[in-house]
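Lecture 7 notes. Example A: sequence first, then its structure tokens.
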Amino acid sequence: MKNSILFAFLILISFSNCAVKELNSAKVYYAMEMEDNLYNTEEYSKIDESGFINALSNPLSTFAADVDAASYSNARRFFMQDKIPYKDVVRSEEFINYFNYDYPIPNDDHPLSICMEYSDCPWNANNKLVHIGIQGKQLQNDKRPASNLVFLLDKSGSMKDANKLPLLKKSFHFLIDQLDENDIISIVTYAGNATIVLGPTPGSDKAKIIKAINRLEAGGSTAGGKGIQLAYNVAKENYIDGGNNRVILGTDGDFNVGISSTAELTRYIEERKKDGIYLTILGFGMGNYRDYRLQELADRGNGNHAYIDNIMEANKVFGNDLNGTLYTIAKDVKIQVEFNPALVESYRLIGYENRELATKDFKDDSKDAGEIGAGHTVTALYEIIPSNNKPESQDLKYTQTTIKDDATASNELLTVRIRYKEPDGESSQELSAVLNEFTQLTSTSDNFRFSASVAQFAMLIRDSEFKGDSNIKNTKDLANSAIGEDPFGYRKEYLTLLDRFELLQ
């Protein structure tokens, strides 16, 4: 009876709030449903997919690089519970960028390289698909900079579940295993208050660090704001010039004491990143997970965001992908694509809705953008509607846009430009590349076909209006043709998610 009354009350609240609220000028979606007699209040940003843009009137597409992968592992958690994820769990670019791709290693001139392909669009026979890949330089273990790491761990009452604090504690063991005497580790925890539970300790003293983590127990309210403030202060006190200075936050994101609004927290983090301190956020748990908040904090804090749904993902983040997770090789990375309107009628960037930038932001070094870690790859896909002898000018009442003769005679489809800063730099450098070759789909690289499969999968989950002829069979066929080298089994695991999706449908 009590559960029925509670359920009715919560339904009334959800209708009064329409399940979509305005939070800090961003639309936020709250998952409103009963699960095992508990009310699910997971929080996601509402995603409005980008549509096609006319290349003659808007030839420039500008966005910030994104290496986050939280969306994919979070969606996997749903599938492993035999559920189809909420559509706004799915950020297409994070699905695509969960996987590494085989791109050329950068030369000594830049820490980044560009690789591109152009072929048919697998889900729309009338359209084409552009694949843009960026590779970050590798970092040898013996050349890692010394690290000043502050573990900021949420041990509030909401972290009691097995997939929260207990999993968090196990996850950090993978990182501790890779530390040495050049690294400094501090641990800050928060519940009702923020506390330093381990002062600066050499990374070689693994037993002491592990003991401090293992004795943590969940309980109390959630003073996340105080914890963030204390962690940044500790990081600044132990700052290593030329080193890797970083706060690593593990939480479900449910702050409720002190500074708790996303707007206040992001302003604070934006200010503190000027001290040269980076931010890594690890999300845990379900039921009250605040995806939107953690995504926003990571974006504003020169950071990255991962979701740890199981011990294998912890090993991926802190084991197999450690260099990319912790060591930034390029910051404020911006990508600008200029389309040739003589060959492209319109284009659509798949994903990156929360990463779009104004054209003028590309050369504005004060504008924040994304960070790329050592060895990371960044992949972006554009769906293209080819030009079919369209008029070479666009006449409006006050302006006239005309295609240059050189562009009409050229076979250049587009030009990609990338601007980035060195990790401790303040001015940007630029590199560029031109795409002018078409490849038959069957002759494209594994990179092209696998990323196209993942993009299709994201559109199918979201039931995207742009999914065209996407179907699970085509998605599987593309993936199976492009497994390639898969040393950690991530691509094979992807195939099992496709099977689960098919059964759940």
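Example B, a different protein, same format:
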Amino acid sequence: VCDGQASTISKTYREHLLSSDNSFLERMWPKAKKAMEFMIGYWDGADEDGVMRGKQFNTYDTHISGPNTFTGAQYLAALRAAEEMAKEMGDEAAAKRYRSIFDKGSKWLSEHLFNGEYFVQEWPQKEPDYDYGLGCHADQLMGQWWANQSNLGYVLPRDQVKSALQSIFKYDFIPDFSAFEYTLGHRVFVWDDGAGLICCTWPKGGKPDTVILYAEEVWTGIEYEVAALMIQEGLINEALAIVRTAHDRYTSGGRNPWNEIECGDHYARAMSSWSVLLAAQGFRYHGPKGILGFAPRLQQDNFKSFFSTAEGWGSFSQKREGSSQTNLIELKYGALKLKQLDLEVPSSDLKGVKVELNGRDFPFKRELVKDDVVIVFPGSLTLKEGDSVRIAISW
């Protein structure tokens, strides 16, 4: 399964970031590298142009044919994850090679598959399978979602990513299924008067004779994925509309809110809901390096949320008033190793930064990197249960 192969590479890097040291990556890197090399050789080929061709079996239980961003962007995310893992393991040759393949693939997909609104599949295919052709697929940015989990940056141009998300909401979000006409005979997960995001539509035609399976189904796992991406791109109202309809679907009408059904009961894909929390927090974390960061996307003037790290969990809050911002990190359980703390601010004209540990001044160095105040602690700071760090910033 090509997308499963790609996601396993991506999640290997994600789990490294969520570790307390490098021992996990040191153990897994040889296997992750082998998996990456298999992807390149089997689906990309000798040209190593960053584009997967041929038949690609995937999580929709069918093959898809030729270049597309549903599987192709996941390949790009895997290449970026492998690049970063190679760098951390001192394998500079592999890192350089993966970056070269990534750059070529990102450029090709952007230039050949973006139709001005969203990304399509290269169509028609010489040997078509269960494809989506010129459709607007809700999973067309799955690779960008994977990249965002580990702060890997854009795998496709930012303006195209945002446009594609707007198109997914415009064409795939159904606010009232009472008037929706099912044509593909798939499973129905939305009651007649409900709302939801379906997997694929064909607003501009180009619908293949043999359509990718499950195109008219509503999966909460995809809804949360898309909503998280929307939050990160500032499409807050659209994101909350999708999350709200998923919530309403399972908290009314006699359904179980702890069992969001897709392929079967308690299906794992719904756990992508966690990514909505991370997107809302603007959460960034590198456990082995002791780097923690936040850039809230909701209620930036008065924000508070739970967070978890390699060895502990706690709460983060942010309050903005006038030309000042106060952030508070409170560790409720375990331990948290901190060497660097990144906090987003709305102004580059800083006047002052103050850090307190448990109410007392604590030494630090700081700099402004783009929109972030980067606070570096001497040596390292290890928070224990009950400890708190308060940061006051003015501009």
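Note on Example B: Residues 23-44 form the longest helix (22 residues). The longest strand covers residues 324-344.
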